[in-house]
């Protein structure tokens, strides 16, 4: 059996592998050492679903002439997942736009497509790099619309509301796909936006000391949000470029995230003095260091 990975034939000697599942597992382990992951597979020129391993893992190697595998980075895996989910959302949106009570065929197709929704919904938090609690908070309207649709599937209003929430989700997924397609540009743009916010740190501290908590807390939320995004983008860039420098900066960002958690605790405790100091001094120092490092990494002025 000939084994081809990314259009290159491998010169390998099989050990104890007897079936496709075993050779696939061996190749997975070998690729993982280089930070690569399987994306698509073909057996004798026929593409098979990599996610339905139970349907092909028992195929004997003696029955296979050629096994082809396409591999990519973790970023490529994420892109593949995003495209799959976006295609699914587009199917739901197309069917929801066509749904009428006079067309039971379309309603049946929509119901059939919706049978896969719970599986997609469960995968979304990890795909968007959010924990379940954060996803449920950010997408509560989507979840509520899905529950309402399940309760009243024939209600045009419920269908329309669910479709509207799917469109909003699609915009976010498209943005994440754009980040993965061009990690450097995404990292540069976000770093510059965050840099432009730094002069306002002192104002936020003053706002806290003068009783304008709402303004300061709103600004802190934006800083936290941008920092979390920066962590994600730096990870993407590190994977794409295999940059050790990016990995070191990610550690600094993790420390920055710890400082933001301390800020959040100060908010919960109502400790305005500590919060103002953290905003004006510690946070500024760490942000300056991280953004300066990203500037050096990208060869740009941030």
Note down, in words, how this protein is organized.
The protein is built from twelve helices and five strands. By secondary structure, it is of the alpha+beta class. It folds into three domains: 2-72, Ubiquitin-like (UB roll); 77-178; 183-298, Four Helix Bundle (Hemerythrin (Met), subunit A).
Annotation keywords:
302 residues; alpha+beta; Ubiquitin-like (UB roll); Four Helix Bundle (Hemerythrin (Met), subunit A); 5-stranded mixed sheet
The global form is flat
Helix share of residues? Answer: 55-70%
- Which series of helices and strands comes N to C? EEHEEEHHHHHHHHHHH
Instruction: Please tally the β strands and state the result.
Output: 5
CATH architecture of the largest domain: Up-down Bundle
Structure classification: alpha+beta
For the biggest β-sheet, the strand order reads 2-1-5-3-4
CATH class of the largest domain: Mainly Alpha
CATH topology of the largest domain: Four Helix Bundle (Hemerythrin (Met), subunit A)
Give the termini separation: 53 Å
Looking at how many chains there are and whether they match, the oligomeric state comes to single chain
In round numbers, the mean pLDDT is: 87
Architecture blueprint of SSEs:
Elements lengths: L1 E4 L2 E2 L10 H13 L4 E7 L2 E3 L17 E7 L1 H25 L5 H11 L2 H11 L4 H7 L1 H12 L4 H26 L1 H15 L3 H9 L3 H29 L2 H26 L2 H27 L4
Parallel strand pairs: 1-5
Antiparallel strand pairs: 1-2, 3-4, 3-5
Helix pairs in contact: 2-3, 2-7, 6-7, 7-8, 8-10, 8-12, 9-10, 9-12, 10-11, 11-12
